[in-house]
Amino acid sequence: MDFEVRPELLAPAGNMDCLDAAIAAGCDAVYAGCDRFGARAYAGNFTSDEFIEAIDRVHVFGKKIYLTLNTLIKPDEYETIHDFVKPFYEEGLDGVIVQDMGVISLLLKEFKGMAVHASTQMSVSSVYGARLLRDMGVSRVVTSRELSLREIKDIRRETGIEAECFIHGAMCYSYSGMCLMSSFLGGRSGNRGRCAGPCRQPYGNKYLLSMKDMCTIDILDELIRADITSFKIEGRMKSPAYVYGVTDIYRRNMDFIMEHEGEHYKPSETDRKRLAELYSRGGISDGYYKRHNGLSMITVEKGAYKREDKGEVNIDRKQLPLRASFEAVAGREMELRVELADNPDIFIKAIGDKADIADKRPMLDADFEKQLRKTGDSDFTFDKISIATDGRSFVRVSSINSLRRRALGLMRERLTDEYKRSL
Questions:
Q1: Residue 309 is assigned to a structural domain of this protein
Q2: What is the three-class DSSP state of 43?
């Protein structure tokens, strides 16, 4: 495998601000939890209505979104899973990340056409486990953090199943998904998303169980060569600044590697330093990809939750550029045709109120354009607007605003309807 296939860059979204940060930074997909069944109970998470909005927002930009349903489910909860997932499925949810074998079976049976991914909480660490899940119908495994690059290559080669692998963020001292320390010591189960992180505490005067954070920026070209399907950034409990900063750095470096086919790749010291500054638990390591284990992966002397954030960053909410043609003729309904700036074949036409004959000064082209450009915090912005008027028209500002909102709403529907399904 060389540099033929571009891996997916998968970013965390603990809330809508983080989702916007991930999109702005150039992710290919996000993973996010709703207010139930996710393995990050203390993340911001989304309400059901917010998650519906998140699905549409990522689809406007041609991105994907995966729901984290990655806790073990109690027997009396199974009957609620269908109704919980159904509205997301119908809105076009791209996939679900799952830990529970029973939930995997339920989703594959009841929600056709939606990808099911095996969570890292399942500790898939061999060809045999990956093959079993593939044969069930699972399309992707989030491999255990403990696997080497060679073992991941074996899974891809022997099974063909997609492999999603962590490239940055927190590490777990135990096998992912198998630790019971938090349950035993504090009654908070990691398998229910409530890990108290006892491994991060000092034992004696040393932090002997506290792992350094993973950072793979130096071996990113090797990971791309390994035919990994998706590069995953950990951090659903972290800030929008973290999500943006980490995603942006990996995006730029991945693009450089793909463009230059891995030649002359060496990350900048600026990028290395920024990754460590955004969040650090006592140091960084490239994880298990090139080593079995070792003391160099443990913080030992440093505090478990030491954080060195050098300040927030300004994150501009990404908006999709549009081009528009507007027409206003006295006595006729206004028309607004809107198309994607980079794909004019995708367009809509909206009809507005009738234009009146001006009693005094007719409206100028600039008057119409000023109102049309007020897209606010919507998903869109106008790259170019062409105005055609008869030079004697007057239209109420509220009517122009209404036409603009209608057109942007129709464009959003045009971009998101293709993802929607019926059950």
A1: no
A2: coil
